[in-house]
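Handout, section B. The chain below has 314 residues.
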Amino acid sequence: METRPLPLERIGQRFSIRLHDPAGGYRDVVGHLKSATSLINRKGQEISFDPEQIFVWREIVERPNLAGKGAPLTLRVLELDQICNLTWPATQELENSGWLMRAAGGVTNRANSVLPLAANLEAGALTEFAEKLIAAQEFYRERNLPTIFQVALPTWQLLSDKLRSIGAVETIRGNTMVTDLISSKQNVPAGFEIVQSDQFSNEWLAVKPTPGIEKILSGCAATYLTIVRSGQAIATCRIALAKGWSSITRVYVHQDFRGQGLGKAIMAAALEASFEQGATKALLQVEANNAIAIGVYESLGFNFHHEYSYLELK
């Protein structure tokens, strides 16, 4: 706490001021400093005070809401799982006691797997496990799909261990990576250009053909980036925003054009577009054994947040 005069060069910043009432006692006022004699509280009201009555004051330094920081890891993992689910929506969903069963005709693991939710964690990771498993298996059997679980580690370690004990096999191990966003324009290699649209095109889809993916892509608003040379689409990326995050998916460079920095170029463009659209943080998921892609992401400021795996019941 400070007893020297208020720093008027910090007008606009948030302060807590303790005033000594001449009649006795103290009172506190909190808000953004407007002048030497007033501040604006959180309700938008201007509160006036006599600077001669200031006993002590302190500036309230807002802690930045940084990617991968702040809340306990478990809460951060649940938040990122939710962001990924919102920005890559399945065409069918059914929740059962904290298990979100998702289906989309078998197109991508994320949209065709069980995602454990906060409600499951609060009740206990293995609560009613047998009953919920039967319901999940029936859900996927009716759709002619395998029963797959997406489990983030270490949050769902108990669930992972239980699934493995009854025969579930890990089909993919991945890393969730995060970064904070700043404006940072990148140059595109000579001879290439980046095209941006709020709709996917047939050319965008053709770079990495995945039959049936159109329904997932259409499930939420997104921005589609394409690197083009002489009218040919050769690299793609997709960003979708939710709750201040930009979720980056479908980063792909045609095999004939790899090794030219195009993956990094389109990723950098995606981060810039995310920043321009108001996102403050970005996340992505990448297979843990894809060292080349991980290296590119790290060079752009991404850091490891947590592991996840897809466990399939055979």
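Note. The chain is about 25% helix and 35% strand. Compare this with the example in section A.
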